[in-house]
Design brief:
alpha/beta; Maf protein; 8 helices; globular
Length: 209
């Protein structure tokens, strides 16, 4: 770490393996502490109030960061979340493989949006927030392909909101993808790294305890 830089404790308020892998690959040193909030209940509440999908992603990211920041004074906390919107409807993670199949049937041949957001919080203060969206169009695949995919997809069927992971067999579901790759994986990584470098003395040299 360069002389003169203060160490900052960095926390990711998420248990997402994809987000953890992105930050590790970027050379950051951080802790991962998942926020124990009821995302489904909050999403239903905000949908009932007419909150837009993009704003729901940002509000969920904020809730996670604020929750963890309460019990970790002085730490810089990254809250992150992702929602999937198709035809004006928000879809949740499938509970089991059968539900994942139904979701994929509903998405095939259509374009949906993956909306990812992050919020940085320290000691209850929201320092910045960013939301990005990507457009993904699925192929109109047949039932045979769907069954083959579901057999190979593993836990992506229930761990990811779209029942797929682009870094795995899920890439075969698509005919067109428009948007930032990191946003699709669940975190607008480039604007996050810019914030950490510019305002919080965190870079490739570590900068955090």
């Amino acid at each position: 770490m360069s002389a003169g830089k203060e160490k900052t404790r960095l926390i990711l308020a998420s248990q997402s393996r994809a987000r953890q892998e992105m930050l590790h690959a970027a050379g950051l040193v951080f802790e991962s502490i998942p926020a124990q909030i009821d995302e489904e209940a909050l999403t239903r509440k905000w949908q009932g109030e007419g909150v837009a999908a993009q704003d729901i992603a940002e509000k969920l990211a904020e809730e996670k960061a604020v929750y963890i920041a309460r019990t970790n004074p002085g730490a810089l906390v990254i809250g992150a979340d992702q929602v999937l919107e198709c035809g004006g409807v928000l879809l949740s993670k499938a509970l089991d493989a059968g539900e994942a199949r139904e979701k994929l049937r509903a998405l095939r041949g259509k374009t949906h949006h993956l909306i990812s957001a992050f919020t940085l919080v320290r000691d209850g203060e929201i320092l910045c927030a960013e939301t990005q969206s990507a457009r993904l169009t699925m192929r109109d695949f047949d039932e045979g392909f769907l069954e083959s995919y579901c057999q190979k997809a593993g836990d992506a069927l229930t761990k990811n909101v779209g029942a797929y992971a682009l870094e795995g067999p899920g890439v075969h579901l698509f005919e067109k993808i428009e948007g930032d790759y990191f946003t699709i994986l669940g975190l607008p990584l480039l604007p996050l790294l810019k914030q950490l470098r510019t305002h919080h003395n965190i870079d490739l040299e570590g900068g955090c305890a």
